[in-house]
Design a protein that fits this description.
Layout (H helix, E strand, L loop, with lengths): L1 H37 L7 H14 L11 H12 L3 H27 L6 H11 L1 H4 L8 H16 L3 H14 L6 H12 L2 H27 L8 H5 L23 H11 L1 H17 L7 H15 L1 H4 L6 H23 L7 H4 L2 H17 L8
Helix pairs in contact: 1-4, 1-5, 2-3, 3-4, 4-5, 4-7, 5-18, 7-8, 9-10, 9-16, 13-16, 16-18
């Protein structure tokens, strides 16, 4: 019996190691191909962070308050400047953190999966080959550190460790202001995992957290010098900065209100316009396609959407308490992002949905493959 048990344990360890090696090779191949196609991106939006890092070095502070929520990439560029590492140092650090995050994601999935399930390998491999998620590792944009922090945060959530969750959530928020959208769903997850005795006290903390969420949201939206919160409604934006025929004239007096009140006034005053434009935004957000992409590009995105969304509807997940909690967490996060897109607009390159792609993979592909593997099996304690 001892021999069989030891053989089984060693087999599991070897299988895990093989899977990690496969993922490292696959991830590395994708990064290499992306480098051959795009090289290292230091222009366009990168210049904003490069200049902010230079300003920090010269003046000892950030140029604007809003840059606090991009301090991940700004800090990395700043440190690279101090050691004269150049842009290649920034990219190499981003690549390293990304690889570590993908391995952590795989290990976390393995922890909550059925014994000997191939689901963690398949789910992580799908993420590795999805180039819209991966291509930002080679750019001095905020996205690489943002997505890596999200993977580490979600991995900590699957490991049921509060302190690492809080640390990585702070990292997510400091890498990109969009990270504040993770706060409400995380508070929900913590509430679900708490005992009944502490839920009342936790409710008070959650109310404070929601107030913090509103304050940070107002701060971010009111300190973007080149953006107005009602511009998407006025210009009929589906994709940000791309006006459509759904433009609207709004009350100029609303601009004196806080951003959240401005949005409330718009929704209450023009519900039909809001709903119609929101449906178009959600289509662009979830289906990823763009009129300015090539047919082959859009076909790839369509096929990937099938892989992403079809498993959401064709197989039931295991019903252990921890799995259900993670599913509620993932679903609530997707809904929060969907609402945010309805209130503003979608990104030109679909960067916003990349933030929740790992959660969609967990709820879809991972759930489907692991549910199939769990038939007649039990996950080890």
């Amino acid at each position: 019996m001892r021999f069989n048990l030891a053989t089984l344990v060693n087999s599991d360890r070897h299988s895990s190691r093989r899977s990690i090696v496969i993922l490292i090779l696959l991830w590395s191949l994708v990064q290499f191909l992306l480098f051959l196609k795009f090289g290292i991106q230091t222009q366009l939006e990168s210049q904003k962070y490069i200049h902010a890092a230079q300003y920090l070095q010269e003046h000892g502070r950030l140029p604007e308050t809003r840059y606090l929520f991009y301090s991940g990439i700004i800090g990395l560029i700043y440190l690279s400047n101090l050691v004269h590492g150049g842009w290649i140092t920034v990219v190499l650090v981003q690549l390293f953190i990304s690889l570590v995050a993908h391995i952590a994601f795989y290990k976390a999935l393995a922890r909550v999966s059925t014994k000997n399930s191939i689901a963690p390998l398949i789910a992580t491999a799908i993420l590795c080959v999805f180039y819209p998620f991966q291509q930002w590792n080679l750019a001095l944009y905020s996205e690489s550190l943002f997505y890596s922090s999200i993977l580490l945060f979600f991995s900590a959530c699957m490991a049921f460790r509060i302190l690492p969750q809080a640390i990585f959530l702070i990292a997510v928020i400091l890498c990109r202001p969009l990270g504040i959208l993770f706060l409400p769903s995380w508070m929900l997850l913590v509430f679900l995992r708490s005992s009944k005795k502490v839920r009342f006290a936790l409710s008070i903390v959650i109310i404070g957290g929601l107030a913090l969420f509103a304050i940070i949201s107002n701060t971010v939206l009111s300190t973007i010098s080149d953006w107005e919160v009602l511009r998407p409604a006025q210009q009929g934006y589906i994709i940000c900065d791309m006006p459509t025929g759904d433009s609207l004239t709004l009350d100029p007096a609303w601009k004196s209100q806080s951003p959240i009140r401005q949005l409330s006034s718009y929704i209450i005053g023009h519900p039909g316009h809001f709903i119609g434009l929101s449906l178009k935004k959600l289509e662009a957000f979830f289906l990823l396609h763009r009129s300015y992409y090539s047919s082959i590009h859009n076909l790839f995105l369509l096929l990937f959407c099938i892989i992403l969304y079809l498993p959401l509807f064709i197989y039931k997940s295991r019903r252990e308490k921890e799995i259900l909690q993670l599913r509620i967490f993932g679903i609530s996060l997707i809904l929060v992002f969907a609402v945010a897109i309805c209130l503003q607009c979608d990104d030109y390159h679909s960067r916003f949905i990349n933030a929740i792609i790992p959660f969609i993979i967990f709820l879809g592909c991972f759930k489907f493959v692991d549910g199939w593997a769990s038939s007649g099996k039990k996950r080890p304690e």
